[in-house]
Amino acid sequence: MTMLAFEKVDKFYGDHHVLKGIDATIGRGEVVVVCGPSGSGKSTLIRTVTRLEAIQKGRILFEGKDVNARDMKINQLRARIGFVFQSFNLFQNLSVRQNLILGPTKVLGMSRDEAVAQAEALLTKVGLAHKIDAMPANLSGGQQQRVAIARALAMKPPLMLFDEPTSALDPEMVQEVLQVMRSLADEGLTMMIVTHEMGFARDVSSRVWFMDQGQLLEDAPPSEFFSQPKHARAQRFLQDVLRPSPMISVPRDAVPA
């Protein structure tokens, strides 16, 4: 079953054509990683799903319904689609527990006891049960992002969107977030993920979408995309991102004795 469909989607910023005729689908249970160089339209595309960005042409269908239809209730749409941003977006004045129970109690009508029990279970899932009473400011970036994932899951969304969820993190914190995302993939959650983490894309995704200059140039299984990318721009991108980092030589006299 198709969970999400883009049908000839075009997006403009003034005269700048940001998304050009995007045609693609995501099936239930699929994990699609969207990659490409900076400025290729990846984040703009994922933000159109929940109408954080408007489109000028085409249609976006979530569970068969046009997200831009006049009768589409935007708050109900966003309650059904989890969104994890680069910058965590936790409520800084609320504890971790309060962050996780606010949506379920206010939007889903869940009882407080049920919401707290769910929060405890979700925090256990992301390895942060011991931080339930902490304030976001007292958490590391990786911990804040794991709480943000748990908060999105608390709304029981059939679709999760991730917009570069690790790009604001220190390198040592990246893996703890990716590990949570791997476990969600293993559980069969449908996910659309914008990321530069190519190892994760190769290991976890069902399909890889490669974008450049507002176009979706490749849509392929990871085994095919990483071994035989069809488009020259995709080949160049992979050469750049997978090239080993050059060794940095330090002059001997720069090292204290």
Automatic annotation (TrEMBL):
Q: Does the keyword Nucleotide-binding apply?
A: yes
Please spell out the taxonomic lineage of the organism that makes this protein.
Bacteria, Pseudomonadati, Pseudomonadota, Betaproteobacteria, Burkholderiales
Q: Which family does it belong to?
A: Belongs to the ABC transporter superfamily.
Q: Which Pfam families match?
A: ABC_tran
Q: How is this protein named in the record?
A: Amino acid ABC transporter ATP-binding protein
Q: Please tell me whether the keyword Transit peptide is annotated for this protein.
A: no
**What's an example of a GO molecular-function annotation for this chain?**
ATP binding
Q: Which InterPro entries does UniProt cross-reference here?
A: AAA+_ATPase (IPR003593), ABC_ATPase_HisP-typ (IPR030679), ABC_transporter-like_ATP-bd (IPR003439), ABC_transporter-like_CS (IPR017871), MetN_ABC_transporter-like (IPR050086), P-loop_NTPase (IPR027417)
Domain of life per record? Bacteria
SMART domains (alphabetical): AAA (SM00382)
Q: Which UniProt keywords apply?
A: ATP-binding, Cell inner membrane, Cell membrane, Membrane, Nucleotide-binding, Transport
Species this chain originates from: Pandoraea aquatica
ABC transporter domain sequence ranges: 4-238
